[in-house]
Amino acid sequence: MIDRTQFWIVVVVLGLATYAIRFSFLGLLGNRPLPGWLQRSLRYTAVAVLPALVAPAVLWPPATGGTPDAARLLAAGVTVVVGLATRQMIFAALAGVATLLGLPFLL
To answer: Residue 77 and residue 83: Cα distance in Å, rounded?
Structure first.
């Protein structure tokens, strides 16, 4: 178990670091236009973060002890295919969820 003093030091330092990161964009650059190259790069942030959050749950799911599961891999594939075909995130997510929930009944 972590010492109570050490815990609060970590909490305060992480809080200050988070504040500094956010202040650097909002406080210092909030009323200034960003360079074009930075605006173009920031457009892809959400597109990069979502797969980075989902990939470990698909490739190393805790529910199966870290071994890849056919249902999760197929649901991820269906999600990608439906997303590319329809260009609608909600349809892709619903197709993936339906596949993930319905496939165990078929297998």
So the answer is: 10
> What predicted TM-score, i.e. pTM, was given to this entire model?
0.63
| Alpha carbon distances (Å) from 38 to 6, 20, 48, 98 | 38, 19, 15, 37
Here the tokens at position 35 are 């360079």
Q: Are residues 60 and 46 in contact, defined by beta-carbon separation less than 8 angstroms?
A: no
Q: Exposed (0-12), middle (13-18) or buried (19+): which is 98, by Cβ within 10 Å? A: middle
| Segment (H or E) for 16 | helix 4-26
27-86 pLDDT, tens per residue?
777 788 888 998 898 888 888 898 899 999 999 998 888 899 889 999 999 999 999 999
DSSP letter at 49 equals: H
